[in-house]
Amino acid sequence: MSAVMAKYNPFAEKAGMKRILEQHPPKEAVSIVSVLRGLGFDTQLLGSRTYVVSKLQTLAEKDVLRIREAFAKHRHPRFMKSFSHLPFGTRDAYVREIMAADLDKLANLIRICGFLMQTKVYLFWKE
Fold it and tell me: With CB atoms counted within 10 Å of each terminal CB, which end of the chain scores lower, N or C?
């Protein structure tokens, strides 16, 4: 069983499951979130498409460029997967796609980053 909630609620462990792994956020996501935090994003709301799109629309073009540069600099396989034609593409192609992405695509990448920021706990049933 994998669960984000298991970090906060020991229900599964009390039911007899054993915690076998705790997966922390990847360094790429942490770096991007620090840029977003500096631009005034509420990191607790990164999973909300409505919030992220509205926040992006209020930013100046130079700030949107900072976000694009952060994604271009901190490449993660999950970000690359969001470009369906680039599952294992080159870095140059990825950077081109990031720089050409519209605000909706950028909002989707930010939502993925918010998901990656969750600490996941993996549990296994022990007898």
Answer: C
Angle, vertex CA 116, rays to CA 62 and CA 77, nearest 5: 80
- Is it the case that residue 103 has pLDDT exceeding 80? yes
Q: Is the pLDDT of residue 127 over 70?
A: no
- Note down the domain range covering 79: 2-125
Residue type, 90: T
Size of the chain in residues: 127
Do the Cβ atoms of 120 and 3 come closer than 8 Å? yes
How many domains is the chain partitioned into structurally? Answer: 1
Q: Residue 78 has which token pair? A: 């999950």
- Bridge partners of 124? 18
Measured CA distances, 97 to 45, 88, 91, 101 (Å): 25, 13, 10, 6
User: What is the value of pTM for the model shown?
Assistant: 0.80
Hey, which residues does 122 pair with through a beta bridge? 2, 21
Model confidence pLDDT, tens digit, residues 41-100: 999 999 999 999 999 999 999 999 999 999 999 988 888 888 766 556 678 888 899 999
Sign (positive or negative) of CA dihedral 38, 42, 44, 46: negative
